[in-house]
Specification:
By secondary structure, the chain is an all-beta fold. The protein contains 1 helix and 17 strands.
């Protein structure tokens, strides 16, 4: 089974020219993974936080676990995501699901105090793209059936390079192809890069956005 279901669409806009080859790498195609945990430097308690799992789609960055209250023999805690939004509340010693992270806080020999914190880092982990096909579908306009530019990992030579286990793809469209494409209107050409699994026939969007195509590089950003 391929990793097609792990791919989430990302927006990327491009500047291309009729007079230059299109050699652009795209951002990492990744799934959320654990980057590590760090206790607050002023923590009183010497307990630990453990992470049982990180779901695909979990926000990248530092998720903060904080002890908010102690009473009735329980240690209460809350979790906030990298945007500062509270994603869960619970108690130490019980599993907690917070914005895609399954975690638990365990007491040590010195009890936690209100204000003790832990940071859980979530980072992208490369999705193995081996065996997947990528195709650029760029239209003259959003409602048009006519193509502006096309590229694929299936052409010979390939005009999209598949980095396989690296989780990266890259455009490598020759200038001869780009020279035949008219200069885009000011709003650009809408495009999508689609990922397909030849075994199952399933297709999902990997990237989308706009291509601003000019005659020469000197026109970039001038709306030509």
């Amino acid at each position: 089974m391929s990793n097609l279901a792990l791919i989430r669409p990302q927006r990327v806009d491009f500047d291309t020219q009729q007079s230059c080859d299109w050699l652009d790498g795209l951002p990492l195609i990744g799934t959320a993974g654990l980057g590590g945990t760090v206790p607050g430097s002023a923590n009183v308690g010497n307990g630990t936080v453990s992470v049982a799992g990180v779901a695909n789609g979990t926000a990248y960055g530092a998720h903060i676990v904080a002890v908010t209250a102690i009473g009735g023999g329980l240690t209460y805690l809350s979790v906030t995501d990298p945007a500062g939004i509270v994603t869960a509340q619970g108690v130490a010693g019980a599993p907690l699901y917070a914005g895609g992270i399954t975690l638990s806080l365990s007491q040590g020999t010195t009890p936690f105090a209100v204000g003790d914190t832990f940071a859980i880092g979530v980072l992208p982990v490369a999705v193995d793209l081996t065996g997947l096909r990528f195709d650029l579908d760029s239209r003259i306009s959003a409602g048009s059936s006519g193509f502006a530019i096309q590229a694929s990992t299936a052409t010979s030579p390939a005009t999209i390079a598949n980095g396989n286990a690296s989780g990266l793809i890259a455009m490598q469209v020759p200038r001869a192809t780009l020279a035949a494409c008219p200069v885009s209107p000011a709003e650009g050409y809408p495009y999508a890069i689609l990922a397909s699994d030849p075994v199952t026939g399933l297709t999902v969007p990997a990237f989308y956005g706009l291509i601003f195509h000019t005659a020469v590089a000197a026109q970039i950003g001038q709306g030509s």
